[in-house]
Design a protein that fits this description.
By secondary structure, this protein is mainly alpha-helical. The chain contains seven helices and two strands. α1 packs across α7, α2 crosses α4 and α5 crosses α7 (163-187). The radius of gyration is 16 Å and the shape is globular. The structure holds protoporphyrin IX containing FE.
């Protein structure tokens, strides 16, 4: 369970958790500390399945718009938004939409492992570390993205939302974010 952080918490209030349960695929299974329970995996997957399909891209886009609502300055980090200036409305930016979907899918894909551990391929993790260092992403941004993610899921599937559901997504996100942050340190 995540340490008291909620979608209402101030952005920079969390410290980075150690990526205890993040397992690089090459590691032997014994190295995994399974803090992400089967129940939590089920919760994340059930929300993901409910959001899947036609409106998924719209939900993912809402997620990104929410990030910029919380932190407008974050726009400057995205090369494709910088380059296009204010000419293209955010809503219809194809690259933004594609990116939003990728972040969402990446988050969800980590849950598809049978063991319940968050697993990320080493090459993917390395690439994500490098990309985010290059883009100037800082720890506090991860909190903004987390808040936006939780808000978006709550909006998308209000009937499924519960403290347990929230906790499961928080745990999944925290583990993935911790793994990316670790890679960012190495890449810096
Ligand atoms: C667990 C959290 C996150 C995941 C899974 C994630 C995922 C991704 C992915 C898949 C890419 C595409 C590039 C690549 O594959 O290397 C990317 C790029 C990027 N991400 Fe994230 N991201 C996360 C958190 C964040 C945060 C907190 C920020 C800061 C607001 C951020 C900002 C960016 C930027 C600026 C790019 C480069 C876009 C460009 O200019 O082309 N990401 N991210």
């Amino acid at each position: 369970m995540s340490s008291g952080s909620s979608s209402d918490a101030p952005a920079a209030s969390m410290t980075a958790a150690a990526p205890a349960a993040v397992v690089v695929e090459e590691d032997p299974p014994a190295a995994a500390a399974a803090t992400f329970s089967e129940e939590q995996e089920k919760l994340v997957l059930s929300a993901w399945n409910a959001m899947k399909g036609e409106p998924a891209a719209d939900i993912a886009l809402k997620f990104f718009l929410r990030i910029f609502e919380i932190a407008p300055a974050a726009k400057q980090m995205f090369s494709f938004l910088r380059d296009s200036g204010d000419d293209v409305p955010l809503e219809s930016h194809p690259k933004l939409k594609a990116h939003a979907v990728t972040v969402f899918a990446c988050e969800s894909a980590t849950q598809l492992r049978k063991t319940g551990d968050v697993k990320v391929r080493e090459a993917t993790l390395r690439r994500l570390g490098a990309t985010h260092v290059k883009a100037g992403v800082a720890d506090a941004h991860f909190e903004v993205v987390k808040t936006a993610l939780l808000d978006t899921i709550k909006d998308a599937v209000p009937e499924m939302w519960s403290p347990e559901m929230k906790g499961a997504w928080e745990e999944a996100y925290d583990q993935l974010a911790a793994a990316i942050k670790e890679e960012m340190k190495k890449a810096a």
